[in-house]
Amino acid sequence: MDDNGTQPxxxxxxxxxxxxxxxxxxxxxxxxxxxxCDISARKQEPLWMLELRLKALQNFVERPMQKWxxxxxxxxxxxxxxxxxPVKQQHQSWEDVPADIKNTFDRLGVPESEKKHxxxxxxxxxxxxxxxxxxxEWQEKGVIFLDTDTGLKEYPELxxxxxxxxxPFNDNKFAALNTAVWSGGSFIYVPKGVQVTVPLQTYFRIxxxxxxxFERTLIIADEGSMxxxxxxxxxxxxxxxxxxxxxxxxxxKKNARVRYYTIQNWxxxxxxxxxxxxxxxxxxxxxxxxxxxxxxxxxKYPAVILKEPGARAEILxxxxxxxxxxxxxxxxxxxxxxxxxxxxxxxxSISAKGGRSSYRGMxxxxxxxxxxxxxxxxxxxxxxxxxxxxxxxxxxxxTDNVDIGHEATVSKIGDDQLFYLMSRGLDQEAARTLIVxxxxxxxxxxxxxxxxxxxxxxxxxxxxxxxx
Length: 468
Description:
Layout: E1 25-26, H1 33-42, H2 47-62, E2 84-85, H3 99-107, H4 110-117, E3 120-125, E4 128-134, H5 136-140, E5 144-147, H6 148-154, H7 156-162, H8 173-181, E6 186-190, E7 200-205, E8 212-213, E9 216-221, E10 226-234, E11 242-244, E12 247-252, E13 257-264, E14 270-280, E15 285-292, E16 297-300, E17 303-306, E18 312-321, E19 327-336, E20 342-351, E21 356-365, E22 373-382, E23 388-397, E24 403-412, H9 415-423, H10 428-444, H11 449-463
Parallel strand pairs: 3-7, 6-9, 7-10, 8-11, 9-12, 10-13, 11-14, 12-14, 13-15, 14-16, 14-17, 15-18, 16-19, 17-19, 18-20, 19-21, 20-22, 21-23, 22-24
Antiparallel strand pairs: 1-2, 3-4, 5-6
Helix pairs in contact: 1-2, 2-8, 6-7, 9-10, 10-11
């Protein structure tokens, strides 16, 4: 360990250090009704939330594990800690955060990012948000940016109106699990006409072994408003498995716009099983920009329901599976429920060192959604013979007069490309990294500059040792 008690960095995964546990409370291993009741009681929640949690728990227990997608047979649901409270209370100043937790976020560069780039920041450690702050200029305009637990307490009517309105508690097995044991996450409301021109961010950190993190994020963009939200996530590298199973619900009202960025960089021992969905109303725009680099298994398909005429959606997804047995099963889902709606899904994946990436997507056009347009493009790059890429597109069209396009490509790095770059002085590994950076450039250019730099750094780390 180093001077502040954390385990040293791993060059291949610098974020993989851990801090000795020193928590306010930690539940027993496993999941049962008493643990769910205890979570709700400790949070002093209203009765309706406890009742919803218990219904969701019953649904989770009764529902079978899905048979499609990557195998989850090695995920032991009873070998997870479902609630860990790291501190007694949340803080609005970094100086008040306990030193060991603050050192973790300092090491990850989170406070520095807040100073330079953000309108507001939340930092979640294990099950709770330990730091949260929104700059005064946005508070004065009526923007609400809180952790989700505080949102329930301070805005109960608004919260209850929208919670589970986009993703019901019984939507799928892991949405049910999240609803039963959710803790932390972000609660955002942007008033009519307010344009939040600087991103909001929450950073999620798992520290304990066998940890389950189940944040719940709810974003409501009122008419004519705009907001950009960024989430980042890391965890220590352990032999034992951890579970991250978040739910994100976004409501984009008439003429509003929400852009949601994710840079997922969990350690390889984490199962990342996430449900994310937005609903877009008249002339609204919902955008997901989704990067998946870490975790052992990721199953994540950001979705948009285009509910009223003129609504638009865009899902930009990149996945990199770069270690033996790693599976990135990702993509996007669009449902056109109204006429004259437009959507686009752009998916790029990279497979290396025995990893497997899969695009799994859906475009559905309902009966009254005439004159809608949708385009799907899937590009896969395979870097060696031990890696794999798959595409599972699903298109369901139930009306005429629509414009739907789908194309997919799978390619490998050619010897002629490598020869050309190496003839210009690059070694083989640097040449391969340059080709990969060019492949993902359409994705990276969508990121704010500071996140684009971070994305390129992460790709370079994943590419180390990829030759041969």
